[in-house]
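Q: Sequence in, structure out?
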Amino acid sequence: MLAFRLLRVALHLFRGLATCAFAFPRLGHAARQQRIQRWSARLVALAGVEVRVSCRPGLQPAARALIVSNHVSWLDIFVINSVGPCRFVAKSDIRDWPLIGWLCEKTGTIFISRGKLRDVRRIYQGLVASLHAGERVAFFPEGTTAAQGTLLPFHANLFEAAVEAEVPVQPYAVRYTGKSGELHAAADFIGDMTFVQSLVSVLRSGGMTAHLELLAPIETRPDTHRRELADAARREIADALGMPEGREANRA
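A: Exactly. Output:
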């Protein structure tokens, strides 16, 4: 059974490779976005994950915004893309993942090298340009994945892009639960776990639900400091996840 499910996921990944290689060059931006959304939704479904989207009553998500979310798993990218495709900022390590790395690159992922100030500046300029162009841009301010029930300090650097592009910050909160509503440990992608090991863990989980909550947009002003935005986003996400915000300071 596991082998069959792995085969279905692998075939879907190869279909994605073929789409990026042969269809994307002939498609306009809107058509590519539709393909990404459908493909992501199918991948998540093949992994046995049901996506549920929610927001607070009366909340209107921002039409143009810099999207930020807590980070649990490689699944996060595809859960969010299944709702609305984004250009993600991701660690350069992901580029080396089998199949997934190439797919992420071809679908517009922006890769960043950790610890390289010059790379952060390059990424920042690209984010501002993308936001000015009306693109949906997202990143994970924790900088890495964290086990569910944990919210790491937020790096604040890239929040500056929202200020310069004059768009709000749109926080998302994501969590994965089992049939009884408990946080599902199989979603955790931490430590030295490889993508393949994580995929097998998810497929063996017996199914889980991804809860994606859209939170209130955080408005920006020309004098808004990036740390202020990072603090506000972390508070919103911590509250949505039902966890104490903690005393850890956000990162510059």
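DSSP finds eight helices and seven strands in the chain.
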